[in-house]
Amino acid sequence: MQEVSADMIIGDILMEDATIAPILMASGMHCIGCPASQNESLEQAAAVHGMDVKELVDRINEYLNAKEK
After folding, report:
1. pTM of this prediction?
2. Domain count, the chain
3. Per-residue pLDDT tens for 32-59?
């Protein structure tokens, strides 16, 4: 996976790269195993949890960029 965006579905992201799960959980998204959350976008989940989606997307993309090097 090269990069994530706010409109991507959490379930799709995790199917592509399950190593992103700890980042989501550390951000407060402890419900990523819940079936309902699998169909939410990062933006929707961030809104529910009161998070800044841009910050979350940036954190995930920084991780992915570092992982590729």
Report:
1. 0.90
2. 1
3. 777 877 889 999 999 988 999 999 999 9
